[in-house]
Amino acid sequence: MSRLKTTRLLPSVTAGLLALSLLSACGGKERPKADLAASQVTTIGVNSYLWRASLDALSFMPLTQTDSNGGVILTDWYVNPQNPGERMKINVSILDRDLRADALRVAASRQVATNGAWVDAPVKAATTQKLEQIILTKARDLRRGVISN
To answer: What's the sign of the alpha-carbon dihedral 111, 114, 117, 120?
Structure first.
């Protein structure tokens, strides 16, 4: 009977020793170096690539509020000199510390001049989507620039 127990335990013990030997090979002190810059940069409250890319993309507009810890950028009304009858206001929110598309939210307000007064007008969804795309592309380019340097 004891020989039967030994025969049944032998495969389990062998598998355990094999797993232990494989784990001990992973215990080296040197870690492999990543060839990509970290997607999570947290020297400020939000992802710094998204933050810098957002500020860069909105640099032509007057800013009313910037909060790097909360990830909020608010612009004042901007009138395009080529279209003085329309003005835009942008609100950018960075929602995460990771460089991800869903960590960015852009909202826009638009007004048109009608009879000497500014009247709210709808913003095309493509406008905010295009601005999000521009910011994300700039953020990825910033990250790539860190990798190449």
So the answer is: negative
